[in-house]
Amino acid sequence: MDANADQIDFWNDAAGRKWVRLQELIDRQLADLGRIVIERAAPAPGERVLDIGCGCGASSLELATRVEPEGSVLGVDISEPMLARARERTQQAGLDNLSFQCGDAQVASFQPDSFDLLHSRFGIMFFEDPPAAFTNMRRALAPKGRVTFVCWQPLSENPWMRIPMAAALPHLDPPPIPAPGAPGPFALGDDARVWQILDEAGFRDIEIESHERTLTVGGDENLERTVDFILEMGPTGAALRDAEVALVERVRADVIDAVAPYHGEAGLCMESRSWIASARA
């Protein structure tokens, strides 16, 4: 798994533990988008599903209920802390057709023709070499297999991440600008690049649809708790990873002011944009 060594280290350290701690809030925030991409994938009873970047298992659990009793789901992720939580949830749900594997899908040795559906909910933006990763995953699909996934559009198209980050930046040293397509939440923000990656990997019938969705950020009705969530997650959380408490408090005050106009009875409701991509092997 050396190809993605930096990502492996990142998701097995504090980041993985943080996602486990915030799992319920993250799942509530992404629940609607998760359902949409699963409906687009249309998993059927008896199908074999590979769930890439499955994290704490929310999408894997839903997929497993869609394909039972004879179907099966394998969730793959590089984060041991998140997989431990996914296994715990699977045991609690009493599902025996769902299993998990710690591995890097870019280089993992999947059996050829062993899956009918490749699925991902925001789990495929972290590969060092996306064409190689999708080529490897395509080999695991049956001849009539398909792929469906959702990924974020650029930061500029996602106010729920852009606005808090803009409020934080005056307090911070200018962050390094990542190389285009570098592993991270916006690695697949360019739909032309997504199409090219799938095409180079050997997929056909490629469709990429822009999807706009209002998110209840942090899945919480309380503004201050939601801002605490923002300061831990996404680009704002990344920028503050090693910040001192006093700096975080100054940023927190400005982020509250920046997002307060979007807060109401339902919580902090802000717009998001993602790509929903699908193709056939």
| CATH C-level name | Alpha Beta
Order of helices and strands: HHHEHEHEEHEHHEHHHEE
The CATH superfamily turns out to be Vaccinia Virus protein VP39
- Poorly predicted sequence stretches spanning 5 or more consecutive residues: none
Q: What is the general shape?
A: globular
Rg is 19 Å
Seen as an oligomer or otherwise, the chain set is: single chain
What fold name stands as the CATH topology?
Rossmann fold
How many individual β-strands?
8
Strand content: 15-25%
Largest sheet: 8 strands, mixed
| Structural class determined from secondary elements | alpha/beta
The number of domains: 1
So, CATH architecture?
Answer: 3-Layer(aba) Sandwich
Please tally the helical runs, counting DSSP H or I stretches of 4 or more residues. Answer: 11
What would the average pLDDT be, to the nearest integer?
95
Amino- and carboxy-terminal Cα gap? 24 Å
Descriptive labels:
23% strand, 281 residues, alpha/beta, Rossmann fold, 11 helices, eight-stranded mixed beta sheet
Molecular structure report:
This protein has one domain: 3-Layer(aba) Sandwich (Rossmann fold). Helices cover 42% and strands 23% of the residues. It contains 11 helices and 8 strands. The chain has helices at 5-11, 14-21, 23-41, 58-67, 80-93, 130-139, 159-168, 191-200, 223-230, 234-239, 245-259, and strands at residues 48-52, 72-77, 98-102, 115-121, 141-152, 204-216, 263-264, 267-280. Strands 1, 2, 3, 4, 5, 6, 7 and 8 form an 8-stranded mixed β-sheet that branches. α2 packs parallel to α5 (80-93), α3 runs parallel beside α4 and α7 crosses α11 (245-259). The model has no long low-confidence stretch (mean pLDDT 95).
